[in-house]
What does this fold into?
Amino acid sequence: MNHRYSERICSTQKSFIREILKVTANPEIISFAGGLPNPNLIDDEGIQKAAAAVLKEDGKTALQYSTTEGHPPLREWIAERYRTRYGLSVDADNILITNGSQQCLDLVGKVYIDKGDSVIIEDPGYLGAIQSFSMFQAEFLPVPLNEEGPDMACLKNVLDTTSAKFMYGIPNSQNPSGISYSESRRRDLGAILCEYEMPFLEDDAYGELQFDGVTRKPVSAYMDGEGILTGSFSKIFSPGMRMGWVCAPDEVMEKILIAKQASDLHSNYLSQRILSKYLDENDIDAHIAGINEAYGKRAGWMIAKMEECFPDDVHFTRPTGGMFVWLTLPEGVSSTRLFDAALERKVAILPGTPFYTNGGGESTARINFSNSDKDEILTGIGIVAEVLEEIRTTPQ
Amino acid sequence: MNHRYSERICSTQKSFIREILKVTANPEIISFAGGLPNPNLIDDEGIQKAAAAVLKEDGKTALQYSTTEGHPPLREWIAERYRTRYGLSVDADNILITNGSQQCLDLVGKVYIDKGDSVIIEDPGYLGAIQSFSMFQAEFLPVPLNEEGPDMACLKNVLDTTSAKFMYGIPNSQNPSGISYSESRRRDLGAILCEYEMPFLEDDAYGELQFDGVTRKPVSAYMDGEGILTGSFSKIFSPGMRMGWVCAPDEVMEKILIAKQASDLHSNYLSQRILSKYLDENDIDAHIAGINEAYGKRAGWMIAKMEECFPDDVHFTRPTGGMFVWLTLPEGVSSTRLFDAALERKVAILPGTPFYTNGGGESTARINFSNSDKDEILTGIGIVAEVLEEIRTTPQ
It folds into this structure.
């Protein structure tokens, strides 16, 4: 058979993370490589009750085909939360339910990107987005992140000298770096994007996972209703049910709807109904508070252990939310070498190079804290420190 | 904001069917326009039991992230069914679970189609496929269908004079025409596609819905393991749970996996687990037999009523499976006019023009029988016949 594959598929690699996760799935390994929510914080009993109620009360409807946009009460719940938490003026018509927030990237890619078009992205940037936009043969314009968010001088230069279709970013507890944009940076970013009429795709997978208790307004709140937001129930409800959403202005939503119809008609309706019932019958804010308490402790143990046993020339972010710490080793120390050596001691980290669209990052690594317990964190970080010392004193 | 949308999205229309379905959702309307499985034949009680068992026995795992390929026992179940029903030599590694079979079209589009590439398609062809491939800016090479399948002389001419990436078809109870390819046509089609090394994307959404009791081998069975098959649990289990699959040779599957990762990481894992449990605990063949008995009766009532009250110059297919009858009105009689006039009498049909990628079909219509009861079928077809008589005797 003569398979003449598309250009796009020939130029896209398998997900590096998913390949690494296969290696690290061995239960003997302490894995900081993945990005899994802690299963102990998934309310399987509550979900079981909600599923039973939906299937008993309205099973035949919940199992039938449904609308492309998604279940109206669920869309209204999301819109209402945007209004009350952030003061955004959106309603249910601005919300479309997707298969996790990853699918939003695919849909927005379809709506904006022709071959060779450019997308502005954080450097380092989220690997899932890089992979998704690569499917549409995007070129990337990376803007470095610093402690407060994207480097504004660099961004201005990119806006002045290039032409992009949109900017993509994760202002809350960014993946992979763990940093959150400061409030003033959000304001400045919103202003400059509006000035240049540059759409912003704001990925807010971690907005609810803020264990410092601070509610941070999305950049979209400073963009006069023009932002495109994506959100996810994966981190606060269930990742396996693949419930995410995109929130967009009417004009953009009309295009996203066409892309969704062509992609898979509509998202799993039974899961939408179970989620909607769960939100009606449970105190999701209390549940989220419990997750944040648990993740905050884990981040605290990890940071304390790193401070205790890492040398001064190793830098790491101090996340106030999300699931990741970002490690920067001294120049010349390869995180791939650290990965290999730590894996021999049955500890897995994630080397940072795949997050850089323009090369670099050889000394960086992403460390997940959400899916390990206290002993694993203390033991695992201790081993990483020992291994780091070994590779620094051993020629490659 | 300066939304510079992609070429693809600007050239793709909203689904005509989904727009019509909004008009016909009024419960006072007898609708033959959609393609819904009959909700009375969805086993909501069995699914409720399976959901309860999965969530009770293994909830935290079933709600967690999972693999891109899908739940291994479910993939093995599908592979085993291909082996025993059709003698295909496939195993679980050749199966990937998708969000309904519609997503297979998106994934295969990603894997093969660059802007301007051609796809060979039945004429009339499935609207969901036309929409999905249009997202990748495909051109269509339509091959007319006759009673036995694609017109082979025309197909040979297309293969000789053009260059396509693959052929797409629905050999069992085709949507929209309702016809099934004959066995000899399947054999000939498989042979010519192999001769020209042309991949075949075989959409088998209706393979299990054969109420004449005949098991028809897929065209892929005559292609030496080179076919790409898609299947769906929407018609035999639940459409709302969006459970479909693609079956492909190893080499192609490697590409599809990359496309699936980039699209949404993986399909709803809880639903995969519920489906898998349901298949373990229930006699799906008995369930399918019940659906076929019910749909066979409905098709019979519809055909009998059409034979009774349609004039001789109206042609219609006599489906042996699936969910649709295809109507061809006398030349010059517009099915859009019939649609409008019938809708005034609260009966909805689906005009056939959107199924033609190269124009034409103005006198054709698709009539669904699966989602109406006997009274609705007899009354509705009677009204269509009356309205048809009226518009033929009234100048437009």
About this structure: Residues 122 and 143 of chain A are 5 Å apart (CA to CA). Chain A has a mean pLDDT of 95. Chain A touches chain B through 85 residues (CB under 8 Å).
